[in-house]
């Protein structure tokens, strides 16, 4: 039995390889920040449709959502073989959601990060060049802006009120087929996973799991309820094949709203952090005696059999000021055990710089506790 692996939904099928489900290569270039006005609208209350599935009809929500979902084309610059000339070519496609009539569009960071240019195609066939207002690799969200009249922003739901089993629709641009609608249910809530795109890692915290079909090109598209209100931004799948097997994940709209409003106001999203660096691939390694022995040789004492190994600390940062050093082990935050890096990111996901947290950690054979103020880690 093949082991399921988490894959970020590829931004697109590359030119000439339609149907390939692979993550786009990024060119890491500085992103030009804009100073847009407006933001995401107010959260609207959810009214659940509990009618019999036998009578389910999704034409109405599809008609509400489709005008608000766009296709996003990314272009990257390459040096042409032979003469060395710089050429810009389309390298992938994704999706986006209009959240304000002023032209504000939400998509995934992995769809547009580092792109030389971004183009948006609306459901009415109009095409516009988009400005990347800001990106947030940590949450895998990005904000675009287009100058276009007569836009229809999507209605916003409240992701804190959705329930397992309720109907949802996923709308996007899979494999370049713009305006595609798929139907499913909320399969689970509160999923935490890490997805990597090149050298960037994003953390999907409290993600919505759905069995609605999500494929390459759905990245940045809408997950909406049966009333046509946005409850999440589609971002990742778990798969044994690279394609949809009915396990997709969306970023909850309540988190999207906070990140987007930060980007619109500041140009980046604020995140509170400890000021430590760690390697997620080492999660659980302390359960191995050989690993503990190796760390003991470095730290001078045998570490505990659980926790997060500190790879490095920010000089002058919150953790260093609290006495945390390299090769220490983080054990608990606010009383909750830190079994792995995903738990830490889940606990910090809603915390802002300046907030106080209590930290328990192992330091060269001693268990210590400290209260520290979270530092800002969102600025790129």
From TrEMBL:
InterPro entries: Chloro_Bact_Ser_Proteases (IPR051201), PDZ (IPR001478), PDZ_sf (IPR036034), Peptidase_S1_PA (IPR009003), Peptidase_S1C (IPR001940). Keywords: Hydrolase, Protease. GO terms for biological process: proteolysis. Residues 272-365 form the PDZ domain. GO terms for molecular function: serine-type endopeptidase activity. Pfam families: PDZ_2, Trypsin_2. Signal peptide: none annotated. This is Trypsin-like peptidase domain-containing protein. It comes from Fimbriimonas ginsengisoli.
